[in-house]
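Per reviewer request, we include the raw input and output of the structure prediction for the construct analysed in the revised manuscript.
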Amino acid sequence: MVTMTSPAETAPTPRLLALRDAVREIERHAADRGWDGEVTASVFALVRTTDALSATPDLAGELPETALAEAASDPEHLTSIEQDGLPEATTLEELLAQLAWPEQVDGAAVVVERLMVPPEAEQGLPQDPEEAMAALMAHPDRTDVRLAAGVLRTGESWCAVRSRSHDTDDEVAGSPEAVPGLVEALRATFR
């Protein structure tokens, strides 16, 4: 497991800790669905739970008791809201480029499964995309990973990475910039 800070770094802020916890919870939610799901990517709006409860008191009946208790003791606690009806897109990057969030949304997160291979595996791949994918899927050093990344409007980020070969909650790695391209694409949804 990756630790959050090194001795030379400052301690994480309550806001970063809330984001870390939200991203971990989103990744666990995806893990409960299993691998190779029908949905290629899931996108979540992140809102401060206390603000959401102030705006919509009836929300208290829909949230788990643990979330309400955590929000009562932590004003930075975040609630994730999975987004339905997303625009059509052929890639995750294209999807994220189409998103923008209202001011009430404090952050956004995405979870996606990816195939990782060593760089040398991409040499000599067939030109046909389907044949290339089949070759990558059959590669002996292939690794399936689930990536979850979240950002806040204020700039903080957190990523969680789970490998299919180490598929337990205690082996999920995490850090603020583990997946920099995904973090940047999420940040762009707030510009």
